[in-house]
Design a protein that fits this description.
This protein is of the alpha+beta class. 18% of the residues lie in helices and 41% in strands. The protein has five helices and 17 strands. The chain has a 17-stranded mixed sheet that branches.
């Protein structure tokens, strides 16, 4: 039996398992990922992040959703990933992390050696339908009609390294996130599926959102969702280019700078560390359904 070390961390309740594989020795497939992330049978998490070596950055973030699928980017995930690197591998306040959505520059704000906040340059939002991607009869999907099952609404689509469909609502508490989000996520117009952000505009500088994440379900927080929501709100002339974003798990600060780059600031917390026998899950060869 060979045990592998792991760390469990969260960003505003959006929780992740972090495992090092700097020498590319581990073979963690979709089935093992589902097993580790399962709330009742495994460690339990919204996603798995594997720390790998990079030729282009300090480290590479290999991100997996709880259902075993891969994702290019995760705003909350990259913050706890950076905290892990700072505390375990690389003691400096600025990092560059390679992701499926490109290189991301990180600044860690620490107090007495403990990371309190992480500032992430999330890059430029993609607005063209072919870049998001979304199949539509328009170049940009902004305040555009969206037909899903038995309801019709207006939505704005943005990619922050992963696709988001942003829907503005009057009262965030009244939305059945699972019922609506699960339908919108798998619409044919989204060839790679989509995350779905439900947004209540509280003021010009404050949003309240809930997010249905593809491959996961509703989470307590979503960093890319917060960024996409601010961009969509500004495009629809509902907010300024900076806003506090309230999520069920806490608050993030998002700024869409004049140079078109989106800056995300938020906390990251380590919950616990432990060891897991990856061979156990390989030998079991069982599928654990995540719902």
């Amino acid at each position: 039996m060979k045990l592998t070390n792991f760390t469990k961390s969260h960003g505003l309740g959006n929780d992740f398992i972090i495992i090092e594989d700097l020498n590319d020795e581990l073979r963690i497939d979709a089935g093992i990922t589902r097993a580790l992330c399962a709330r009742h049978f495994g460690i339990g998490a919204d996603g798995l992040m594997i720390v790998k070596s990079s030729e282009n950055a300090d480290y590479l973030m290999d991100f997996r959703n709880a259902n075993g699928s891969t994702a290019q980017m995760c705003g909350n995930g990259i913050r706890v990933f950076a905290k892990y690197i700072y505390e375990n591998l690389l003691a400096k306040g600025k990092l560059t992390i390679e992701t499926g959505a490109g290189l991301k520059k990180i600044e860690l704000i620490n107090l007495n050696g403990l990371v309190e906040k992480v500032v992430v340059d999330m890059g430029e939002p993609a607005l063209r339908c072919r870049e998001i991607p979304v199949v539509a009869d328009t170049d940009e999907f902004i305040d555009h009609h969206l037909v899903a099952d038995k309801f019709t609404t207006k939505a704005t689509c943005v990619s922050m390294g992963n696709p988001h469909c942003v829907i503005f609502v009057k009262d965030i508490k009244e939305i059945d996130v699972k019922a609506v989000g699960s339908v919108v996520e798998t619409l044919d117009i989204f060839p790679e599926k989509t995350n779905v952000s439900f947004v209540e505009v509280v003021s010009e500088q404050k949003l309240s959102i809930r997010v249905w994440e593809r491959g996961v379900g509703e989470t307590l927080a979503c960093g890319t969702g917060a960024c996409a929501s601010l961009v969509a709100a500004n495009l629809n002339k509902l907010t300024s280019r900076q806003a506090e974003v309230d999520l069920p798990g806490g608050q993030l600060l998002v700024k869409w700078r004049d140079d078109n780059r989106v800056i995300l600031t938020g906390g990251a917390k380590k919950v616990f560390v432990g060891q897991v026998d990856l061979d156990y899950w390989k030998n079991k060869e069982r599928e654990i359904e995540y719902s």
